[in-house]
Amino acid sequence: MKPFESTWMDDDLRMLREAVSRFVETEMLPHEARWRAQHRVDRETWQSAGQAGFLLMDVPVEYGGGGGDFRHEAVLYEETARRGISGFGQGVHSIAAHYVLNYGTEQQKRRWLPRMASGELIGAIAMTEPGAGSDLKGIRTKAVRDGDHYVINGSKIFITNGAIATILMLVVRTDASDRSRGLSILMVETGDLPGYRVGRVLDKMGLTAQDTAELFFEDVRVPVGSLLGGEEGKGMHQLMGDLPYERLTIALGGVAAMEGAVAETVRYVKERKAFGQAIGEFQNTRFKLAEVTTVTRVARTFVDRCIEQLVAGTLDTETAAMAKWWVTDMQQQVIDECLQLHGGYGYMNEYLVCRMFADSRVQRIYGGTNEIMKELISRAL
Ligand SMILES: Cc1cc2nc3c(=O)[nH]c(=O)nc-3n(C[C@H](O)[C@H](O)[C@H](O)COP(=O)(O)OP(=O)(O)OC[C@H]3O[C@@H](n4cnc5c(N)ncnc54)[C@H](O)[C@@H]3O)c2cc1C
């Protein structure tokens, strides 16, 4: 079959893809099994990625970024997701940086973005709490103004990059009387911060190289300059504005994982033999592969269109929600079929398709559950 290439690729991006792919093969893949065993990625990998210019590729050069757009970021998502590298949480890192870029004061941008681009600071998004997941207005972690500081008390759960993060995009309640307009975002540097504690790194079904963690805040004091944009009560508005970006990163990771799983399965069925022939020669195998290849191509075409819209500044909330729910549902179905074609080996963690299957399940849950995506779409009808 003719090799497929996204409509948004150009010569510049092809060169970037080669460099990123080399980086992933040499700096990530050899460490992946160890990352899964230790449940976190090495901090040094973040610094190497920063030095190579692969962090915040879509942030302007004046703030330390690569000066590109989302297509540049997409190359990194694709090259990691296709190989099943799921512990390196560059998605939340980039998303946290985008909140600073889009809503931060000039001083805040200059303070945090260059250090996030170099990998000196590792970002996390800390929204979810034990009592507030889909319903973010239930957030109770509070920040109370005390002179030139905010005093933070509360806890967060399921935080990607939670254990290694050194800068948190922390959603807090600054006004108890208004569920929606009482939320604000604080950018919190966690190094040597009294009262801040990382709890358990959570034991998960998949994404085992990811340090998804609990975070605790006990009378944590941060300067008032940590308030994103400098104005209280803007948290919900800021969150809503940036969600299409976050949802597209999830859909993109999903379609790239589908592409990786299908390619791996095509390779596998040509080698594995049963009843005196390659299993790829059975009609069932050929039809299943035709089906998953078709679904993957349809998903890719939609995601590519969304990428072009995001770059043009026209990706709306509903379209991003459609991409998030549909692609991640398809991701799970496609990888399940690929796993089935691997037989018992597909159930073994040493096989890529097995790890991809376990990793795929959460894609339907985080970033707003797929049910919440349908809620958003239906409200606009
Ligand atoms: C591995 C992992 C990584 C994560 N990373 C992060 C992170 O970095 N930062 C962060 O802040 N959070 C993170 N999360 C949290 C994630 O975003 C939440 O788990 C998710 O938003 C769902 O919230 P919940 O778990 O409280 O489920 P609930 O909100 O309790 O939902 C339970 C079920 O009810 C359904 N439901 C809820 N409300 C409605 C409704 N109105 N209509 C229909 N159905 C509904 C849901 O769809 C779901 O099926 C992560 C979670 C996981 C598992």
Describe the structure in your own words.
With 381 residues, the protein is of the alpha+beta class. 48% of the residues lie in helices and 14% in strands. The mean pLDDT is 97. Bound molecules: flavin-adenine dinucleotide. The site of flavin-adenine dinucleotide has 21 residues, from strand 1, strand 3 and helix 11.
Give a quick summary of the entry.
This protein has 381 residues and is of the alpha+beta class.
| Residues in β-strands, percent | 5-15%
List bound small molecules: flavin-adenine dinucleotide
Low-confidence stretches: none
Give the distance, in angstroms, between the N- and C-terminal Cα atoms.
Answer: 39 Å
Mean pLDDT: 97
Question: Roughly what percent helix?
Answer: 40-55%
Q: Secondary-structure element order, as H and E?
A: HHHHHHEEEEEEEHEEHHHH
Compute the number of strand runs.
9
Q: Structural class of the helices, strands and pairings?
A: alpha+beta
The general outline is globular
Strand order of the largest sheet: 2-3-7-6
Number of helices: 11
* Radius of gyration using CA atoms only: 21 Å
Sheet having the most strands? 4 strands, antiparallel
Keywords, please?
381 residues; alpha+beta; four-stranded antiparallel beta sheet; three-stranded mixed beta sheet; 11 helices; 48% helix; globular; binds flavin-adenine dinucleotide
